[in-house]
Amino acid sequence: MKSSIPSWKTLAGFFFALISVCSCDTSDDSTFDRKAHIKQIQANPDFQSWAHYLGDPERTHFSLLSQIDTSNVKQLVPAWSYVSGEVSEDRTTQIQTNPLIVGNTLYGISPANDLFALNAGSGELMWEFSPPGTDQTGLGLSRGMVYWTDDKGGQARIFYASGYQLYAIDALSGKRISAFGKKGFVDLREGLGRDPEKVPIVMTTPGVIYKNLLITGHRTSESPGAAPGHIRAYDVISGDLIWIFHTIPQPGEYGYETWPEKAYTTTGGANNWAGMALDE
Fold this sequence. Notes:
Layout: H1 8-20, H2 34-42, E1 100-102, E2 105-109, E3 115-119, E4 125-129, E5 146-149, E6 156-162, E7 165-170, E8 185-187, E9 201-202, E10 208-210, E11 213-216, E12 219-220, E13 231-235, E14 241-245
Antiparallel strand pairs: 1-2, 2-3, 3-4, 5-6, 6-7, 7-8, 9-12, 10-11, 11-13, 13-14
């Protein structure tokens, strides 16, 4: 484990993410049935852990955990700290990732887009995955990742992107799952009707899981010839593309007639780069 003294900028992302666990909506709405809402929350296991980006599939930023409250929060003291060792000379590096905590493991992403797993109790580094290439920093900061496990608990995967590469990583070992996509990753530039080598695609915000599907958006430019921002769903086991929703409609699709003819072949953007929520 790296042990240099952390800068506050490097750790700011973690502190902000962890503090957000304690936040909730305190607004007063006389039409809101609070008792019914509380019962619904208490029955949902998603609110008793932090295994999803921003807390749960609906991205509510809320947790039922009550050990820390307004009466004792002032007594908190640092238990441990972790340093990725990637602080730049101009000290502009940062961690924007909202970490996941599954069981006793904390998953995070460094400024260089390295995925790591820590013992949540001690801060000890359990494993680290570095995507190919010596420097991934310029490929866009990553805000989070997706944790998935099968119904029997026999498989556990972390899905995260570095630039245009969407990886499937074994949650226990940190090894790339080679059977997913092409040697462990999906090239997000492919399947968008553009030359993959000529379109800038990055995925800075994680997608959502629905059953056996990983549903994702991405960030792209909005200049002429840019890639469209279609929403895609991939099989969580194989990485195969299952379906695609064209945000810029194609012939025969709803809304096509509202665009200039063949606009889908040249117009880009209309993308989901800020993330999405899942309402089941």
